[in-house]
Write a structure and sequence with these properties.
Layout lengths: L22 H14 L3 H4 L8 H23 L11 E2 L5 E2 L15 H17 L16 H29 L3 H17 L5 H4 L3 H9 L3
Antiparallel strand pairs: 1-2
Length: about 220
């Protein structure tokens, strides 16, 4: 049951399923197989002969689904009263704007912000002109900048979870899951230079720690 006033339940279904038998599904399977090898630096590299846009699209969908699940485990601890602002530690606060419905950034609670954010990402992923699922349909010219904005925003959910809810994550014994997911995400955005360093600042120490184990 969804407590009233909390996030709409629709956000928690991994909405964007990659159709089985499609090329993108094969790519996702490839990604999962290489992840299993334990070498994340290698797992994020563009497979030989593959289209970069398609590789980024498949992984973006996958990260969206992972973050949805991870945030879903702590949503009861992320409330209007526990998190009245969307922050990642005392130095970083995020205000929401999507450029269409909300043009001027608004200050809102973390659960509200994350609901806006995940709904916004969902709408992008469901837009066939941005994320074509059919073979042979080309990606739009602005695909890279769309993907970068999505990933930049998804990073903020990780940052909020690490800064404000890590104790809950530990109590739920989810930290290995969270760390692996985040490490995969970071290696991916580093490989293709998808998020500006300044945006990564709230988790800089963690990022350096994750990276140093893998050199």
């Amino acid at each position: 049951p969804v407590p009233s006033g909390s996030r709409s339940s629709k956000t928690f279904k991994p909405k964007k399923n990659i159709p089985e038998g499609s090329h993108q599904y094969e790519l996702l399977k490839h990604a999962e197989a290489t992840l299993g090898s334990g070498n994340l630096r290698q797992a994020v590299m563009l497979p030989e002969g593959e289209d970069l846009n398609e590789w980024i699209a498949v992984n973006t969908v996958d990260f969206f689904n992972q973050i949805n699940m991870l945030y879903g485990t702590i949503t009861e601890f992320c409330t209007e009263s526990s998190c009245p602002v969307m922050s990642a530690g005392p130095r970083y606060e995020y205000h929401w704007a999507d450029g269409t419905n909300i043009k001027k950034p608004i200050k809102c609670s973390a659960p509200k912000y994350i609901d806006y954010l995940m709904t916004w990402v969902q709408d992008q992923l469901d837009d066939e002109t941005l994320f074509p699922s059919k073979i042979g349909v080309p990606f739009p010219k602005n695909f890279m900048s769309v993907a970068k904005t999505i990933l930049k925003r998804l990073f903020r959910v990780y940052a909020h979870i690490y800064h404000q809810h890590f104790d809950s994550v530990i109590r739920l014994q989810e930290e290995a899951h969270l760390n692996t997911s985040f490490k995969h995400f970071i290696f991916f955005v580093q490989e293709f230079n998808l998020i500006d360093r300044r945006e990564l600042a709230p988790l800089q120490e963690l990022i350096e720690k994750l990276g140093s184990k893998d050199r």
